[in-house]
Structures
1.
Amino acid sequence: MASNITTTISQQAAPASSSLSVSAQIGITILTLAFVLGFPGNLFVAWSVLCQVKKRSVTCLLVLNLALADAFVLLSAPLFLRYLAGGRGWEFGSAACKLVHYLSSVNMYVSIYLICLMSMDRWLAVTKPFLSQRMRTKRSLLVLLLVVWVMAFILSLPMPFYRSNVKIPLPNITLYLCKPYHWNSVGHKVFQYLFETIMGCVVPFSLINTCYASVICRLQNARFHRRGQGSRLILMIICAFAVFWLPYHIVNIIEVIGLLQGSDSVMKAAQTARPNVTAFAYFSSAINPILYVFAGSSHIRQAGLSFMGKLFEATYSESRSTSTFTRSGRSSSPDESSALQTLSVKLGKPFKSKNKEKSSSSGVSKDIETLASVDQLE
């Protein structure tokens, strides 16, 4: 999480109070649901990919990394729950304060840039199938995954610098609150919120939109309207991430505008909304397994607990068929071809196609050979 789940505490936790505020109760509910649904759900996704899927597509392996990142960040939920419900401030020390927010920020960047890789893989498969085939190897995929993780850890480096376990003296007790800290500098606030929004929203979503615009144009030009499970799954993941994270980035922009204009009312509105949109964004780590359940519901009755493995195997088959179609340039009709061949035999004349060389047996063999190798990680 790129920012302050813990700001909720600093604004509404009362250590001596026997009852929790409404905002604290909402925060506890969101975090509890996220942990109860998301942590076992993401582990189930990882188990399905590792143990149930025999032929793993690029999309499938990217989903595995996404599930592991989400499961890892959800481990911080019990700390935030204690912070919200305990009423004693942050009890886990300054190092833990910085670490959990740093890892939450890493999760945000890993998630969105893994989604970028999914979109780029789809774009390459449709627009540049031969290049896609050469690039889809174990080595290239591992390199790309390593780049995403390293980049996420680097992009998250500002987070621990702008997070501090601040001492709050009260009449009867001294509290420590893990909260944003910018040394009373407008420049530092503007930098952090703009940097998060540009690198965590503007850049990746621009890339995603460009890739899918190109894919849609290519498929429309080819008059190919088949929508496979892999494409639907990626679009669902993208939409879910946008729904849960865009409010957070909008609040970032509003606060930056307030800081630059010196408007106290705008800054106050952003600061009031920030705890709620941050908690909402945190729930994004729990939503993907729920989406997979809906996407793979048709397999549940037949496959039982293995239904998610069937869903991910379907992305393998769909990716192969899409790449084969784009290489051929148009979809062929086997029934039509067989009818023409049968008619030519009955007439006693060999059927001659205008594209004789392309429809020869050697061409068919080549298509079959490339079909078998697409999306196979060497």
2.
Amino acid sequence: MKILYLLCLAFVGSASAQTINFNGCHNLFENQNFIFNKTGIDAFNKNIYMTTPINDQQPCGGLGNCEFKIQWNNALTRWEFLGDEGNGTFTAPYLIYYNSTGNNSLSIPPGNTSGTWIENTTVTNGECNGNLTVVNSTMTGDVQGPALGIQEVYKGRIQIFPNPVSDYIQISGINDGKMMQIYNIDGRLIKSEIFDSKVDVSQLIPGAYVLKITTRGFQSHEFKFMKK
């Protein structure tokens, strides 16, 4: 990344198991998507992701060209979101966000609903509007999902049923749904598709899952369900 002012990100989701989509920090990066592809596995069995192509040609708003990388820092036991120092290299990268509160036993990084991605304001000058949340960013694809233990099957007027379920989940109370994702108990994305009030889960193996629904207004609703 060519400018110290760096970042603002927003993760946007992808159904690909080895791709992360991000969209956020619009003050610095404008409203655009960044696609990270898995490029390898480190010595600690953690996946490494980079925006591609890595050739100093990825535009990032008015900041010029930027490349980004998500990788595990074993010395500090945390995941890091890094910006290149120029020309697409990461010899001395800029730290944009870090997350040490997700499920660090997994090989994939936390999403913006798992643990806390903390903004490194020393680099961003606070231009990314604070830590990553579903309000200021989207981050989907090969990332950890929300913790299963804190989800509810009923939120206000929104309901999912039946639960447990064999074939189809019915959703009521959402009129502006945009996307929906299903995560397994380990936080891995299993399914991602355009919102529909009827969700086919017949191909899932029995167990616990989380259904995440994102609205056109960028609100997020999460529900735990059991597949029979």
3.
Amino acid sequence: MSGLDFSCNNLTGAIPESLGKLASLHALNLSHNHLRGPIPASFSNLSQIESLDFSFNNLSGKIPPELVNLNFLEVFSVAHNNLSGRVPDKRQFPTFDISSYEENPLLSGLPSEKNRSQVVETPLPSDETEEKWYEVDGTCFFASFVATYSVVLLSLGAVLYINPYWRRRWSHFIENCIHRCYYFVVDALRKLATNFNN
């Protein structure tokens, strides 16, 4: 067996110490579970291991310093746990990215702290920093508006053309609207003239 992937399950409890006996294992993924407790120091016996992923669990305690003896370890992640103490700084551990340890507020000696003076922040151009997420392309908006409006009008026209009952109802509706608007304007002008004469 060269790899074990138990990720994205609902595993609970502590990580079994006996997993450290699988000396020929090359990859172990326990991420996205509900595991608690410490990382077993017995994992230092996984002499052939190349990838260890404990991210997105509820692990606590320190990162076992014995893990620095894993000479083939290339991928290591304990992100999003409750680990504490100092990150090992020997052999391959200083080469792991800060993302391998993120969301462990009690960890110290992270890569970003060691290389803070070497980090160079590149400012974004002013037009990118001022870009709003709600900005809309005017051409696309206008085109979609016209297309939607045309579809609605064509659908309404097709219904009125096919169904004579709805055609008559629509004619009565338009006629009533015209009469109401006409009499509303006439009444408003009449009242305005009466008030003006008084």
4.
Amino acid sequence: MERLYAGAGELAISVGWLAHDSGRLTDARSHYAEALATARVTGDPALEAHAFCNTAFLARDAGRPREAVRAAQAAQRAARRLASPRLLSLIALREAGGRAWLADRGGCERALLRAQALFGRGPCDDDPEWMTFFGEAELEGLEAQCWSALGDWGRAAEHARRAVSLQKPHFTRNIALFTTELASDLVADGEPEAAAAAADRALGLLNQVTSSRIRRMLEDTARLLRPHGRNASVADFLARYQQAARESPV
């Protein structure tokens, strides 16, 4: 029976993530709450940690950074009952993201250092199965998001580049995500030509990716690049982007 409840809870989280990635944040919140309720009824710390971890991510994306920090801290309390440094590392990154959006640079840096130290302990048999995506590339990408939120665009771009270069080829969605983030960081850092090149690479991956979130991010980057349209590289990207949007709305 416990395995049945755990499976139902993990299914709710999976459905919640699909809603989150497609921009249906209220639906995602409901599914994560369902998983959390299941975890608490059954006393399942692994499911509870997963539900709170995703809730922290959702809260950050929804513009509720204080809730993101609280959810990450709750996830940490549940995860301490497990034996997975990698899980604690990911949760620390969720906390760092919330603190970055609160402009709490010191708290963010402390959470990042904790995440790096925990990640450095390596994988183990107790790592949850759903964490297969969490490798060095994801670590770099999530750190890039923190520096971006803090307005340190140069450092954000540095980590985003590493995330792209370290990502395994079969994780096409994550390559598109980190490449789009790199483009956004570069344009904010005053490098429109490099940003256009990165955005163009991300655009080329969109036909392999079904993520409304990434498409909205690329749309925002294109909007930020328009004032630089006199640059030939930027103009070429914007023309390709507009053509792609006409053929299949981005």
